[in-house]
């Protein structure tokens, strides 16, 4: 029988109510993803494993981001150490994962994640331009390296004796981007001081490279002007005596005066020296302005 009348007495009156019996049927069993969704609604926080799965971040990444303060758990159980994350942290977590996929340092990822979307887009476009410029520079260096030493350049190398020379100098660590400013300001200051000391100040300019100088790496560079007479050092300008020596030098053709092609000039000079067992390079390279029928010469001190 589908419906059954149940009688009861309330306040002396007979009341009847109908109770419907539902037929027995299969138990409703939710899919795992549905149970998780219901569970997420019922509780405010997700365990680290659940949160990482939803954000597509590994447990190791979550620990690292928490330690670095980039993505801090909403709470940590003091008894178990379990980390819990809020569901509204998922967009930030996914953004951090995408930014890390670009190879950005974690500190910069945290900075970008804190910006508004518009500000973040501007920052990322600027970063992308810088990356393109860096790739162009590296491509140019590869092209400049070439498959072999430039034979025509090697043929221009020669030897000459250099007398002992006094120079007034300034030394700084710079990368190739800051090199022109160093050379220009140092030469101006040195010549001004020589003239203020009653000297002509018209000697050759020497630029000594104690280290490799590239767009990515700074190195110690010394800018010097040769002079005769007497002068006192001042500020960061110092005096040095360049001993008499022999140098292998190469006048730089006009098309090779800038990076990256200037590197071929250095390669040619080094190859010329290396090919002669009776010669030994005794020091770092330097550039001499003006050059021998050229804007400048590149030279290495050598010993027989």
CATH C-level name of the largest domain: Alpha Beta
CATH topology of the largest domain: the name is Multidrug-efflux Transporter 1 Regulator Bmrr, Chain A
The ordered H/E elements are EEHEHHEEHHHHEEHEEEEHEEE
Under CATH, the homologous superfamily of the largest domain reads Regulatory factor, effector binding domain
- The average pLDDT value, as a whole number, equals 86
Unreliable runs, pLDDT <50, ≥5 residues? 1-23, 25-42
Number of domains: 2
Largest sheet: number of strands, sense, barrel closure: 9 strands, antiparallel
Distance between the termini: 120 Å
CATH architecture field of the largest domain: Alpha-Beta Barrel
Task: Please provide the count of β strands.
Answer: 14
**CA radius of gyration:** 38 Å
Count of discrete alpha- or pi-helical segments spanning 4 or more residues: 9
Structural class: alpha+beta
Give helix % range: 25-40%
Strand content: 25-35%
| Global shape | elongated
